[in-house]
Amino acid sequence: MDPIVLAEISGNINSVGYGLAAIGPGIGIGILVGKALEGIARQPEATGVLRTNMFLGIAFVEALALIGLVAGFIFQ
């Protein structure tokens, strides 16, 4: 096969792979926010601590997604 065609195929497969890999952080953020809201509903006095920990967790999960995006560009 022509090398240009193979490069296009691998690029498309990389994009699909990252799209599938982004599902994990999306699910993680959904679970994290849901559990934080559940904790706030059960103990409203702990809202500040739970909110702070929720935002820290979101930042770490999003960092995983961004690392995956950058790794896709680096290894291409």
Structural account:
- With 76 residues, this protein is mainly alpha-helical.
- Helix content is 88%, strand content 0%.
- The protein contains 3 helices and no strands.
- The chain has helices at residues 3-21, 23-42, 47-74.
- α1 (3-21) runs antiparallel to α3 and α2 (23-42) runs antiparallel to α3.
- The protein is elongated.
- The mean pLDDT is 82.
Determine the strand fraction and express it as a percent band.
under 5%
Multimeric state of these chains? single chain
Radius of gyration: 18 Å
Structural class: mainly alpha
The termini sit apart by 19 Å
The H-and-E topology, N to C, reads as: HHH
- Low-pLDDT parts are none
Largest sheet: none
Which whole number gives the mean pLDDT?
82
Task: Report the count of strand segments.
Answer: 0
**Shape, per Cα inertia axes:** elongated
How many H/I helical runs? 3
Helix content: over 70%
Q: Quick gist of this model?
A:
This protein has helices at residues 3-21, 23-42, 47-74. With 76 residues, it is an all-alpha fold. The radius of gyration is 18 Å and the shape is elongated.
